[in-house]
Amino acid sequence: MNMPRLALAVAATVVLAGCASVPPSSPSTAMATRFESVRVSEHRGSDDLLTAGLGLAGLRAMTPPVFADATAPTPAELRRRAVWANWRGIADLAPGGGYGELYGSVTAVPGREFHGLARVPGATQPHRVAVQVPDAFDQTARCIVVAPASGSRGVLGGIAVAAAWALPKGCAVAYTDKGAGTDYFDLDAGLGVRVDGTVGTPADGLAFVPEPATGSGIAVKHAHSGDNPEADWGRHVKQAAEFALQSLGDAFPDAAPFAFDNTTVIAVGISNGGGAVLRAAEEDGSDWLDAVVAGAPNITVAGARPLYDYTTEAALLMPCALPVLGIPPLPTAAAHCAALADAGLVDGGTLESRQRSAYDTLRASGWTDEALRAGSISVGFDLWRAVAVTYASAYGRHGVGGHPCGYSFSVLAADGTPRPAADAERAAWFSDASGIPPGAGVGIVGPAVDPAAPLAGLQCLRALWTGQGADADRVRAGVEAVRAGLPRAGLPVTVVHGLDDGLIPSAFSSAPYVAAARAAGRDNVHHWQVRNVQHFDAFLGLPAYGAHYLPLLPYVYEALDRTWAHLRHGDPMPADAVITTTPRGAGNALEATHLAMPR
Fold first, then answer.
1. Backbone phi, psi, residue 335, to 5°
2. Strand partners, 193
3. Could you tell me what percentage of the chain is helix, strand and coil, using 3-state DSSP and rounding each to the nearest 5?
4. DSSP sequence for 514-568
């Protein structure tokens, strides 16, 4: 759909049926998604849509907003804390980092928020959808910005990406957790997360109930839904947009109907959210979408290395390889290199030769020095293993207790052994978790370690990609199901990626995606490649990272500005650019000259 369609007659109506689902009562609603457990809340005065009343100072606070009762927080308290956590998980809010001063907005935006559940055809579990409707929504130039969560975050995981740009412009913002999120289920207690974020039993109506819902430990939706949520990312994004149309009709009944024919829809996301909006852009059925901006997208096209492949490789080899680049090794690095040599995965009889062998293998498989340097933080946080464990379960559609390498999740005691969750821990999962353990008190429980084969768990995860057998076939089939197609011809798409990205290297994701699109004649796909930008803006508060790296979000916002000018005024879309930036250095505040924003 293009801006001229705003003058067209409305072809279909999406109706909000109270707080239940949308009945197929007429041809215009027969194909509409059914939304369940719909909740509406108002956010004005000391609360608002964008920062939950926290403002920049509250978002910068090092400790989260407190619960009056740690064991039984209210839905409002959980929302405020989730807003705090999701802002801090995505944006660099540190003083001197530029947010709210050089770029971005935290100005209070009053309005209403709609939450519900949707389900894609054939899915075992629902996904969360949410819509923020500002009181100043522009009814004369109707716009929706759809922001799927980055990573496996909760439903508001894209708030820093989209809301800061869209809400002040009078656009509604639609969200989805993409079938992952923070709806953990305590198998020991039989308790999970209701739609309002509070803890309840399956009889209360939960956002995720695993199958089976028995056993010990914690079931995580991304890993244990029995679905492969990544395969449905594009559908998740469209359903979030449909929920926005429905919510707008409820918010402004005198201005209804709201439909794709009379509303501009832009999809924006970073990381997994960036991959999701590119999946929504595929030519089969994306005529509802007007433009896409994808930052650091986790996207895989035919012939490119998928996330599971390079993640499991990094988990094995990167801890040994990094000292070649002058990065201080972890205390376990020498033993790790020795175990790699014993397993025949690196060559050499000395530590230095083994390090060089691991490094050479990574470089030969496409890793750049820049990606390896930035990837070191994922080694330090054990993120490679965390991603591999969760995605192996999701790609293979394994339920609780079915992980092919014997991994599970649990709250852990001080000695690392599993223990039951406390009430206060369980109560904070909805607001505090990132969707992939470890975090929010939930850790990874690995298989028993054989001293003679200390890397057996990581090798098992790797073999699910490189090896043979039914389990490997299931994982590879799941990966094949997430490979992206081409964007719709003529759809404006801007891909923004840091050339120092160490979690989702551009060489494995955005670069082959853009190349495939161009080869197929998709000339409206534009590519900004930004030097000195890695994957995690939130880590720029660390002095060493902030000195060397620059944030990605300013470029995503700029791409949105340029896209908006194109849709509203016919301005040309941005040209491709390799953007040469200047790191701010230690102790310096970010300035516009550091960013070298293309004009």
1. -65, -35
2. 199
3. 40, 15, 45
4. HHHHHHTT-TTEEEEEETTB-S-GGGGGSHHHHHH-B-SHHHHHHHHHHHHHHHH
Torsion of CA 536, 539, 544, 547, to 10 degrees: 70
Tell me the pTM.
0.94
Q: Of 575, 512, 513, 581, which is closest to residue 551 (Cα–Cα)? A: 581
Residue 223 CA to residue 489 CA, distance in Å, equals 34
- Tell the residue number behind the tokens 């994957």, with chain if given: 535
Displacement of CA 113 from its chain's centroid (Å) = 20
Task: Determine the Cα–Cα distance for residues 197 and 183; give it in Å rounded to an integer.
Answer: 8
pLDDT, tens only, 399-431: 999 999 999 999 999 999 999 999 999 999 999
Contact 146, 118 (CB under 8 A): no
**How do 111-118 and 36-43 pair as beta strands?**
antiparallel
CA distance 240 to 118: 8
Rounded Cα–Cα distance for residues 182 and 223 (Å) = 11
Q: How far is CA 54 from CA 79, 115, 343, 501, in A?
A: 12, 21, 52, 30
pLDDT beyond 80 at 264 = yes
Q: Which single residue is written with the structure tokens 């293998």?
A: 361
DSSP secondary-structure letter at 174? E
Per-residue confidence (pLDDT) for residue 17, from 0 to 100: 30
**Catalytic residue set:** 271
Tens of pLDDT along 83-137? 999 999 999 999 999 999 999 999 999 999 999 999 999 999 999 999 999 999 9
160: left (phi over 0), alpha (psi -120 to 50) or beta: alpha
Per DSSP, helices labelled H in 117-256 are: 164-166, 221-224, 233-251
pLDDT single digits (tens) 337-392:
999 999 999 999 999 999 999 999 999 999 999 999 999 999 999 999 999 999 99
175: its two tokens: 């969200």
3-state SS class at 469: coil
Q: 172-176 and 127-134 as β-strands: parallel, antiparallel, unpaired? A: antiparallel
Within 13 Å and on the Cβ side, how many CA atoms surround 499? 12
Contact in structure between 400 and 407 (CB atoms under 8 Å) = no
d(CA 83, CA 113): 13
The rounded distance, in Å, linking the Cα atoms of 133 and 131 is: 6
Beta bridge partners of 274: none
Helix axes 272-280, 233-251, angle to 10 degrees: 80
Q: What would the mean pLDDT of 307-325 be, rounded to a whole number? A: 98
Residue-wise burial string across 308-324, b where 16 or more C-beta atoms lie within 10 A, e elsewhere: bbbbbbbbbbbbbbbbb
